[in-house]
Amino acid sequence: MLSIEHLPVLVVVISMLSSLTILVAGWRNKKSCCFIAFATILIQFIMSLFILQHVTTEGPIIYWLGGWSPPWGIEYVVDALNAYVLVLLLFLALVCVTYSKRNIEHELPHQIVSFYALFQLLITGLCGITLTGDIFNMYVFIEITSLSAYALIASRGKIALKASFTYLVLGAIGACFFLLGIGFLYAITGTLNMHDLSLILPSYYENRAVQAAFVFFTVGLSIKMALFPLHVWLPDAHSFAPSEISALLSGIIIEVSTYAFIRICFSVYTVDFITRYVPIFDFICWLSAIGIIVGSILAIAQYNLKRMLAYSSVSQMGYIMLAVGLSTSTHSPLWGGLNPALMHIVNHALMKGCLFLIAGAFIYKAELWDIADLKGLARKMPYTCFGFTLAAISMIGVPPSVGFVSKVYIIFASLDAASAGHPAYIVFVAVLLFSTLLNLVYFWRVVETLYMKGEDIHSQSVKRDELPLSMLIPVLILAALCIIVGIFWLIEMPLPVFDQINALFGLGEYATS
Amino acid sequence: MIAEVESLTPVIAILCPAIASILIVLFGKWPNIREGWTMLAGIIQFLIVISMVPVILDGNIITCTFFTAFPNVEFGFSVDAFGLVFAITSSFLWILVSSYSIGYMRSLHEHAQTRYYFCFAWAIFGAVGIALSGNLLTMFVFYEILTVSTYPLVAHDQTPEALFAGRKYLAYLLTSGVFFLAALIITYHISGTTDFVNGGIPNLAAEASRAVLVVLFMLFLLGFMKAAWMPFHSWLPTAMAAPTPVSALLHAVAVVKAGVFGIIRVVCYIFGVDLMHALGLGLVLISIAIFTIIVANLFALAQDNLKKRLAYSTINQLSLVIFGVALLTPEGIEGAMIHIPFHAFMKITLFMCAGAIMVASGKRNISDMAGIGRVMPVTLITFTIGALGMCALPPTAGYLSHHLLVHGCEEAGGAISYFPYILLIAAILDVMYFFPIIYIAFFKKPEGGSKLKEAPLFMLVPIVITATCSIIFYFYPDLFYMSDLVETAMTSLNIGGGMHP
After folding, report:
1. What is the pTM of this model?
2. Is residue B198 part of a domain?
3. In this structure, is residue B500 part of a structural domain?
4. What is the pLDDT of residues B390-442, one digit of tens each?
């Protein structure tokens, strides 16, 4: 009998099997690939909703793979944090796969089968990272994700090969660091189960090896999530990948690495360790603040739209990591703990997903890569450009969009931390506000080109040349969500899920000082 | 005791332009129906806003809350007398400017008219939202909507010049939005609320040091760059690249008035007059205002482009409002409040005249306008009325507000009782750049023939209405309940007089 306990593992298994099915089915009929992928992700998404519902109402789901009890067997533990990230990740995957049908037929007509097989494998890896409760298993899934991402980025050939290779080298280094950390922990504790580790580790917090392991995890994952100054692989990879992969890379893959980081910090180690033994969060905060500014400034310097968006992602990762860094020093029920970080993970996924898909739409329609080429496109593609404008004003942070809400929450968190013993954090308020202006500079340039430039403005007859519906609807859904979710945050915060996550890790109002 | 009346009326009033904007896009292919929606929405909105007046005049407040964004910060509206003054002004003038736009845009065969009307509706949405919002957060939301929605209007011509104007406009106003946001957050962080309270937020003074409060006030001032105080005024003359109806409604009424409206809100309803006195911020504000008044007038003297000259005159008049509120005396604040609608009516007349001249004769520069009064007598007579108002001469509304400001100075006492002379100098400067226009228009020989050639009726009628209103205000200031509303606002503010040293 299928019960709710089986859902987490099914999400991963179905996805993996589907990837193989696509490969087989694709031999006979190329067109079936997209539908199989779509159906799988839809089922996964529905399952994830059930998981989220169950987790928030009745508590964590625990599943032992093969019936082996931990710490010997692999354990899947789903609490509020995993479920939340899982729903987001599958939602964005669903949007991207819908969008990809026409785009891939156009962009990669000879690689449809391998694209979808890899795409599905990528989703498998991401789901695995979010669901597993075993640290080595997490490493395996990180590798699955990365390997399929390397291949997908390279799929356009030519210059994309170089981008993919850069990513491969740096990604491999990151993975090595991560593995090294696991090795250290295993050598000391003899276990790989996260829960088990968290029970054994506190007595070894003084141990240098345990502390070094934590630093290895941090560096490894920082490369994976493109935290400044380890972001160098990101701009190339994001701009040369097919657009739906760019959207996923920017909207979810780097966020899932953030999830892994949060998991390591608070589930394997504890708040106590981070605040007393390796006070790294202060450092991360400052690094992110620099990243926010530098990412935006580099984005201003770009003339290629996707590259500009990629640098903007560097800046946005700064927002998320700044919020993570502040999480141990804030105590408000509203913006304390991980709330702003979790909020911005969703917000960034929506905004950047939308923007990358639209950048892809311009490429799909007319091979337009550079911002200067987008002149007067608003008259040809009014809906797409409207979507772009909505997402762009969200990035700038015009109320009541999602960008505005995250900005305000992170500012409140900084003020909170500033009045609770870190007076220097007041600088972050200025950084965040200043970054608004930088965002304005580079996003408004695009909006202006779309709407206000173009040769014959007085000619009445411009032929409409909109996207096909299967691409337009996903884009518009994301664009609309940029506003709707913003209002939702304003109305619904504090969200019970966030509350549970903070309670789980002892953050925010649940902090024991 | 002030009673709070829960009602959805403010929401409906604000939704009018929002709904109209959707209909405008849907009916974009049929210009007559499209403009019909604009007019209809304007009339309905005005009637709804007016219908709130009796409740407000009884000393009540109409509130409408949607949700709580942060503890103690509700997103919602709270209509008081002062807000209603601004709301009535913008919604009434929207009707007239819509009619004027029809004439203007069609005569000049402007492109992208659907986009124009769409953005215009959203700008009004923002302006009325600012007027009716009950706390800083709500105000900020509408403030930003107003900024973003007016950008396409400023850059409407899409020439490099217009694009530059648009960019400058956004750069100034969104930057100021950032300062506003910072001020809003700090206010909330200090006092735990952002509501507008008669006489200021009570615990603001107790919770923060003097230095913090002064910085906070400076942030607010920078946040209201829409008020075009010097040296942050240069977006306004540049924004004159916009079509004239935009300059008329937005850059003489909605946008800039949102700025001074915000300053009055902050001075009287966030800081409170007593705290302003205690911090000595009134003098800071007065210095800024006087500097702007004089310098803007000197700049205006040098302009040959009529719209640019009017723009500098607007900067000057806006600072008069700031000047009034900076006096921190009952009559000074009253003068500031009443100058918002009065100046709106007079300045919109002037701008619409400038547009009418451009449509009828294609002339933009004052030096080309020799004898144009004989060609367009109606337009230029109304222009003269508006100009008299700017110079604070009877029988126009401008006289009344200046009268109050002078009384305000006397109430303040001390050195400030000499400040009316500054107002006098300003008025003389006003005369120096407005009267030559009238002289050139009526008494110089026209170059071509002097055959009558007025602008289309769609444009002429609104001009005549606003000019007539400017005169009626002089004899009967209670037109549209203006003076009653301001009196009510002053009663609820309850400020003692004469506290300056």
Report:
1. 0.88
2. yes
3. no
4. 888 888 888 888 888 998 888 887 788 888 898 899 999 999 989 989 998 88
Number of domain units in chain B: 1
Chain A partners within 8 Å of B71 (Cβ): 334
- In a domain, residue B501? The reply is no
**Identity (one letter) of the amino acid at A68?**
W
Give the H or E element holding residue A174.
Answer: helix A159-189
Percentage of chain B lying above the pLDDT 90 cut: 29
**ipTM tops the 0.90 cut:** no
Torsions phi, psi for A270 (to 5 deg): -135, 170
Q: Return all residues near A257 (Cβ < 8 A) that are at least 6 apart.
A: A142, A221, A224, A225
User: Between chains, do B144 and A411 touch, taking CB under 8 Å as contact?
Assistant: no
| Percent of chain A residues past pLDDT 70, beyond the cut | 98
Closest residue in A to B137 (Cα–Cα): A399
Tens of pLDDT, residue by residue over A11-22, are 899 999 999 998
What is the residue whose two structure tokens read 């126009």? B396
- Chain B residues in contact with A440 (beta carbon < 8 A): 170-171, 174
Q: Which residue has the tokens 């890379």?
A: A249
Helices within B111-196 (DSSP H only): 113-132, 136-154, 160-191
Contact with chain B for residue A393, Cβ under 8 A: yes
Range of the domain at B123: 4-493
CB atoms closer than 10 angstroms to residue A150: 20
Query: Is the model's pLDDT at B301 over the cut of 70?
Result: yes
Give chain B positions within 8 Å (CB) of A378: none
A334–B71: do the CB atoms touch at under 8 Å? Answer: yes
Decide: helix, strand or coil at residue B233. Answer: coil
Write out the two tokens for A116: 């979808």
Average pLDDT over residues A71-76: 84
Does residue B368 sit within a domain?
Answer: yes
Q: How many CA atoms lie within 13 A of B177 on its CB side?
A: 26
For A158, left (φ over 0), alpha (ψ -120 to 50), or beta? Answer: left
